[in-house]
Specification:
By secondary structure, the protein is an all-alpha fold. Helices cover about 80% and strands about 0% of the residues. About 35% of the residues are buried.
Length: about 230
């Protein structure tokens, strides 16, 4: 007998979100810094120093930001689970009725909802309440260290791309070369992220490239407006 198999990607949400955010920020922020400083007629060495500083600072900021943010989510989940565990120990019957009420709200008859609640409670009461009452599921649990490492690593990788382009380009050509190549990198990132998540690749590509172009255009304008030619 053939078994029906399905491919789901929700287990990738945690690390995929952090990785895409890190890589996107790495490309956009570093490319924007380079373009802004280059548009202000800075020297090639100043442009490179700015890019390297942006890479280092951004990598640490992404790691710290993700760790703190996801740790807060993890703390909230832990506190909710502790409270739920206490309620199950002290008021088991009310918690059973609460669980049955959730299943009734999802379309089950009262009798069937009660039976399902009883069986789920007997199997794993806390797991049932975590999933159906609190919305906490294993594949989406907050993992601070994983998120921090994913964001930092992908930010550094993303930031290195426009930095390498700037290094290879001559000073007069930095703005067009970094702009064009960064948009290519962003388009590829959007497409790959969409493919990994099972979404429309063209939509993902266009979305990432649009916001990247907007950010780089804004910093180029600021650099041209306030920049001065180095003596």
């Amino acid at each position: 007998m053939l078994r029906h198999s399905e491919l789901h990607r929700t287990h990738r949400i945690g690390w995929l979100r952090a990785a895409v955010l890190g890589a996107n920020d790495g490309i956009v922020s570093t490319a924007s810094l380079i373009i802004g400083v280059a548009a202000a007629h800075a020297s090639h060495s100043t442009i490179m120093l700015t890019g390297v500083a942006g890479l280092a600072a951004g990598t640490m900021a992404m790691a710290a930001g993700e760790y703190v943010s996801v740790s807060s989510q993890s703390d909230t989940e832990t506190a909710d689970l502790a409270r739920e565990r206490l309620e199950l120990e002290t008021d088991h019957e009310s918690e059973l009725k609460e669980l049955a009420g959730i299943y009734i709200g999802r379309g089950l008859t009262p009798d069937l909802a009660h039976q399902v609640a009883v069986q789920f409670t007997a199997h794993d009461a806390l797991g049932a309440h975590a999933r159906d009452e609190l919305g906490i599921i294993e594949t989406m649990n907050a993992q601070p260290v994983q998120a921090a490492l994913a964001s930092a690593g992908t930010f550094a990788t993303g930031a290195a791309l426009p930095l390498l382009v700037a290094y290879a380009a001559s000073a007069p050509n930095i703005v067009p070369h970094v702009s064009i190549m960064s948009l290519v990198f962003l388009a590829l990132l959007g497409g790959l992220a969409a493919k990994a998540g099972g979404a429309n690749m063209w939509k993902g590509t266009a979305r990432v490239a649009f916001w990247g172009a907007l950010a780089m255009g804004a910093t180029a304008g600021v650099g041209s407006l306030f920049g001065v030619v180095a003596a």
